[in-house]
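sorry for the late reply, my laptop died twice this morning and i had to redo everyting from scratch. anyway the thing you sent over, i finally got around to it. pasting the sequence first so we're on the same page, its 242 residues, then the predicted structure underneath. double check i copied it right bc i was rushing
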Amino acid sequence: MGVCAQQALGYDPEGLPHIDRIRCIACGECTSICSYHALVLHGKQMSVREVFKAVEADKMFYDASGGGVTASGGEPLLHPEFVRTLFELCRAEGIHTCMETSGFANSSALQLLLPLTDYVLYDLKHMNTDIHRNFTGQPNDLILSNAKLVAESGVDFLFRLPLIPGINDSTENIRETAAFLKGLGNNAERIELMPYHRLGESKYIALNKPYRLHGLPAIEPPQVESVRQEFEKNGILCTVSS
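ok and here's the structure:
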């Protein structure tokens, strides 16, 4: 336990190893001496040049497939200067750039990145700002405002809906989402559904964080199809992610 300078490692009342998540700064020192590999540090700090070097190594595959680089997260709009520099390097080498975002960030960050972005994947979670705040901790005003910026930017984009049963799959929300998309113009009249699954719950357990959707079953295919048809009835081309 002495390896941890933050004194985040200890034992619980039953004598089992315990990590104090408040003290832990994710330095990774404990992983180096864990002979059972029970402690693993995912991710590492890298410079823009280091990231681009890894990207550049796969350029032949991008050229062959027509693919490219996606800045995801987390939230790429929280690191606009980093992502902009990375996208500048990609553009110089003819590598396609894509940004996957929740849209919840200062509009200036979005405007900084759009000129260097070839494609935007943009999540819309709920049209009711109170329900949105209840489940995400934030209202949706900024997200909807930034969605309009994306639609007007001339950059190719696709809006997506993480479809969660009992939260945003109601007919009312689907119709309001469809109306919002129609108000953005013809290029916005399409959406992709991302059906809820439970694969992320284990990450919350590993981080000792509460999972608010614990016990919620994955959404069933007939429910997904019903939502897809409702979008289509309201004039929105709707696909389902595989």
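Residues 1-44 form a domain with the Alpha-Beta Plaits fold (CATH 3.30.70).
thats about all i looked at so far, will dig more tmrw
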